[in-house]
Each structure stands twice: as structure tokens, then as C-alpha cells.
Amino acid sequence: MTPRAFVDEEAAADARAAILRARRMVGFTGAGISTESGVPDFRSPGSPWMTHKPIPFDVWLASEEARAEAWRRKFAMDDIYAGAQPSRGHRAMASLISRDMMQAIVTQNIDGLHQAGGAPADRVIELHGNGTYAKCLSCGFRHELADVRRQLETSHRAPVCEACGGMVKSATISFGQAMPVEAMQRADALARDCDLFLVAGSSLVVFPAATLPVIAKRSGATLIIINREETELDDIADIVVRGDIGEALGPLTN
Ligand code: NAD
């Protein structure tokens, strides 16, 4: 059941005022910005991610059966949030970018909803990849999910690359898989150079992504955290907004 929307309106007003004053703002998002879109987050109670648990990269690499199972779980999750539309949070951040008030969005999400909400792809830095397509791990060839699904459902085996015979994987970063170097470097540079780092919808427990708010704060930025629950970094934030991202950021959409 979706919890009723709420927000600490006083803190949200402070956050919006700081956002409107910022010159070099960076957004940082986690699964919580997509729950309003119908995409479940990872750690909230009853999350379907627990019944369709992501398979760690070493297990995935080690067995064909694990790869086939990973694809079955991915498609089961995709069916849960098929047709998801951008949330008020996605739209607000896209609007801040279009007004040149936000430099970029660094996201842990893999759902592509920032881009669907109007943020230009080159301003969205995906730390954990993108789950809306697949890639061959050997030659890098892009595979569309509909083709992968057809192969899986016909052969009941993990799909392989038609071009080179390599292993085909969703274009996401699994637990235990190396982080994308360029995305991490861009995110790190943005965190060091921004004057406001706006975290929305992350429990801030997944590393190394969760080091970025700390880097931004140590580099002199104002740190704002908007989240329904406490996060690991509330103690170092300048403004903590307890509540729904849509309620807090929605009024910023132009
Ligand atoms: P998380 O599930 O650990 O934390 C999400 C946080 O958002 C929770 O603390 C929750 O209370 C809060 N939240 C949920 N809905 C909210 C709302 N409407 N307003 C305000 N707060 C809200 O997610 P995480 O920190 O992003 O880490 C989970 C990992 O799993 C990430 O690596 C991410 O890549 C992946 N993941 C991605 C998606 C996605 O792409 N949408 C979904 C689930 C998990």
C-alpha cells in the first residue's frame, strides 16, 4: 500500500529557498524519487526487490542458470512497474535543469525516469547503469530487452550476444560489479565543485555512491536531504526535509 503523502512544510520551505539561491546545484537521487511513479524502492517494507532479489555479479558470472534466473527476476520486476511515469520529483529536477539552476543529476536509479521526465540524457549521470536495455559484456553491443526476453522465453537459457557469443547483461551495475569510471569521475567532480548538493530519496547506505554527499559537504556545499525516513547522513546535512519528495519539490516545477 502506498503511504499517504506528507512533508515537514517548514523544512521544505527552507530547502526551496536555498535551492532558489543556489548557483551551482547538483541533484543526487535514489529509489525514493521513483516510488511516486510506482517503482518500488529497495528497503521499504514489503519491497518486491526482496522476492526478486538482484543476483550478485560473481554469482551471475559463474553460472548460466544464475544468469537465466537474473533475467527472469528482472522481467518480473519490469512487469511490476511497466508504464511508470515520471514523478513530481523527476519533473521538478528536470525543470531546474532547463532553467540552468541545476547542473546535473547524479542518480543511483536505473529506471530512466529522469530522462523521461525531461532531463537531457547528458545531464543525468547514472552511477548504477540503466535497466531499460542490455549490453554484451564482451563486445559492448547493445541489445533491446524485447529481443532478450524473446530469447529467454523461447530457449529458457540465458541469452548470448548474436554478434560475438558473449554474455548479455542488463546495462546495470550489479552488486560486486565495477563502478563505471567516467560516471564516477564526473559525479566526484560535480560534488567537489557545487554550492548545493540536493539528495532526494536515498537511504545513503550504498557505497561508493553515498560518499558523494560527504565529499560535497566537505568541499563547502550546502547539503539538503529530502527523505521519508532518517538517513545515514542526516547529522551532517544543513537542511533535512522529512517527507515526500513530490510535496517538497513539486512547487519548484515551472
Ligand atoms: P533505498 O531503497 O535504500 O532508499 C530509498 C529511500 O527513499 C528510503 O529511505 C525511503 O524511505 C525513501 N523514500 C521512498 N519513497 C519516498 C518518497 N516518495 N519521498 C521521500 N522519500 C522516499 O534506495 P537507494 O538509496 O537508492 O539504494 C538502493 C539501490 O537499489 C540503489 O543502488 C539503486 O540503484 C537500486 N534501486 C533502484 C531503483 C530505481 O531505479 N527506481 C529502485 C530500487 C532500487
Account of the 3D structure:
This protein is α/β, with parallel strands linked by helices and 254 residues long. The protein has 2 domains: 1-39 and 86-128 and 179-254, 3-Layer(aba) Sandwich (Rossmann fold), CATH 3.40.50.1220; 44-80 and 131-172, SIR2/SIRT2 'Small Domain', CATH 3.30.1600. The protein is 36% helix and 17% strand. The protein contains 10 helices and 9 strands. The protein has helices spanning 9-21, 48-51, 57-62, 64-80, 88-98, 113-116, 145-155, 181-193, 211-218, 245-249; strands at residues 25-29, 102-107, 124-126, 129-136, 142-143, 168-172, 196-200, 222-227, 239-242. A hairpin with a 5-residue loop joins strand 4 (129-136) and strand 5. Helix 8 packs parallel to helix 9. The protein binds nicotinamide-adenine-dinucleotide. The site of nicotinamide-adenine-dinucleotide has 27 residues, from loops. Residues 30-32, 34-36, 39, 41-44, 49, 108-111, 128, 201-203, 205-206, 227-229, 244-245 line the site of nicotinamide-adenine-dinucleotide.
Layout of strands and helices, then pairs:
Elements: H1 9-21, E1 25-29, H2 48-51, H3 57-62, H4 64-80, H5 88-98, E2 102-107, H6 113-116, E3 124-126, E4 129-136, E5 142-143, H7 145-155, E6 168-172, H8 181-193, E7 196-200, H9 211-218, E8 222-227, E9 239-242, H10 245-249
The site of nicotinamide-adenine-dinucleotide (NAD) has 27 residues, from loops.
